[in-house]
Design goal:
two-stranded antiparallel ribbon; mainly beta; 10-stranded antiparallel beta sheet
């Protein structure tokens, strides 16, 4: 992929360590931009490329420290990747939102709720096949048993939506998994010779 033009304009606002908001606009022009398609063999995706793609993205990143009420953070992106003929690039969401809320209980349990939303996704070069909105709601819980050892529980796609990243490729339904995290530190002392 060759980026022939790249313009990025952005602004950031911060207030102490409580609020941070960034907004911006990215304008790019690509040659030989890769994308996936199953046009040659149904269900078998191949990598293709296209020239003269005009890309425009408006983005916003945010972080709000809500004191005792937790943290809210995430990003949203409105994007248009236009191919010759004014079609949207396949499998490139026109709008995406990824936002999380994190709260720590008094007993040290950390809970995080996350929403990923993708809208306006086309599955072909002529934009005649549009995928339904992709919504993934997840929850995560972490508890530190020791400074370097914690247990984790994850629940993904809680609403059991039928999300498709690619046409006819259904993502996992409700998924529950648990784990442990162990951290160790290595102290290295460097002596001058």
């Amino acid at each position: 992929t060759e980026c022939k033009t790249n313009l990025n304009i952005g602004a950031k606002y911060e207030y102490e360590k409580i609020i941070s908001v960034s907004v911006g606009l990215r304008l790019k022009k690509y040659d030989n931009l890769f994308y996936f398609s199953d046009k040659a063999n149904y269900g078998d995706f191949t990598v293709y490329s296209v020239n003269d793609v005009n890309a425009a993205e408006f983005y916003a990143n945010y972080f709000f420290k809500l004191g005792d009420f937790g943290d809210l953070f995430g990003d949203l992106i409105y994007r248009r990747y236009k191919t010759p003929g004014e079609y949207n690039l396949p499998y490139t969401p026109g709008f995406s939102l990824n936002t999380s809320y994190k709260y720590t209980l008094h007993n040290g349990v950390r809970l995080t709720a996350n929403v990923i939303f993708k809208h306006d996704i086309y599955a072909d070069e002529t934009n005649s096949i549009k995928l339904k909105d992709n919504i993934n709601l997840s929850l995560q819980g972490d508890y530190d048993l020791f400074d370097n050892f914690s247990v984790n529980l994850y629940l993904e796609n809680i609403t059991n939506n039928k999300n498709y990243s690619f046409i006819n490729y259904l993502e996992k339904p409700l998924d529950i998994y648990a784990g442990i995290t162990y951290k160790w530190w290595i102290n290295i002392k460097w002596d001058r010779i």
